[in-house]
Amino acid sequence: MIEVRELTKRYGSTLALDRLSFHVPPGRVTGFLGPNGAGKSTTLRVIVGLHGPTSGVALVNGRRYAEISRPLYEVGALLDAGAVHPGRTAFKQLACLARSHRIGSSRIMTLLDQVGLRDVAHKRIGGFSLGMRQRLGIAAALLGDPGVVLLDEPVNGLDAEGIRWVRGLMRTLASEGRTVLLSSHLMSEMALTIDHVLIIGRGRLIAESSMEDLAKRFRRDILVRSPKHLELGGILRAAGMSVSFGPRDGLVVTGADTATIGDLAAERRVPIHELTQRSATLEDVYLELTDEAADHRAGAGKSL
Ligand SMILES: Nc1ncnc2c1ncn2[C@@H]1O[C@H](COP(=O)(O)OP(=O)(O)OP(=O)(O)O)[C@@H](O)[C@H]1O
What we know:
Layout: E1 2-11, E2 14-24, E3 29-33, H1 40-47, E4 55-60, E5 75-78, H2 90-99, H3 105-114, H4 130-142, E6 148-152, H5 160-175, E7 179-184, H6 187-190, E8 196-201, E9 204-210, H7 211-217, E10 219-225, H8 229-238, E11 242-245, E12 250-254, H9 258-267, E13 274-279, H10 282-296, E14 302-303
Parallel strand pairs: 3-7, 3-8, 5-6, 6-7, 9-14
Antiparallel strand pairs: 1-2, 1-4, 8-9, 10-12, 10-13, 11-12
Helix pairs in contact: 2-3, 3-4
Bound molecules: adenosine-5'-triphosphate.
């Protein structure tokens, strides 16, 4: 469980976090989304004690990171996959991290195997691609088998197979009852991976929602096609729906659901050739929400 309360972080005159509050429960994959500069990395850095907050608090399992005596066992983080010593081998990199926690070589090899780096375990990181560094960073985050996992832009640099692999791994970690928080600035990368989303902009919470509710909220309208579209349009209007005529004799309807329209047409013996609920894409939803933040300098977080 992660809890962030009224977190504010200033870097000189830049207000990176502005009284940000949220919590991340275990057992699901939570996405932490926001445009570049929204404050995602800052939040993760404060959670793992790399940066101190200006005010407010970030707790992991009820404690500040600094109060956790063997942190790798409780919280694993991938914050910057590039921040590694290029002259070290993958094995050595993990061994250096593991030493303080008495984590042995067999655990290191198991993890390198799990992330697909067993064959290059003794190769220098300097020759690794960004995707390989990401995999190594994920292995480092999982070294102590922690209950809380924080990954900043984990699919950055990964190819399609790598993205699918991260997705599967995150779902497994959540199904084991861990708390999983993944940041990204791209909804398209996260949409299939996360169960729940926290969206931030300008250091404040803009929205918090399950992915299911997010998709529902942005149902747009219903497209209906019928060889008797003029007659059907009149019937639907008389029933209080808003109807406009779209291309190819299509009717665009709001103010009712597909079942009501279908039942009404059947009752009046009007044939229906198409009845489609049209939704915005999640990417549209996300851009709309983050645009609002830009326009209004972020209001209070809304629960969708
Ligand atoms: N060490 C720092 N010194 C000064 N300003 C900083 C520092 N770190 C972050 N900032 C500023 O704080 C704000 C939030 O940055 P942050 O990196 O947390 O955003 P982000 O959401 O992670 O963005 P991105 O998706 O680009 O990584 C930005 O305006 C950034 O320029």
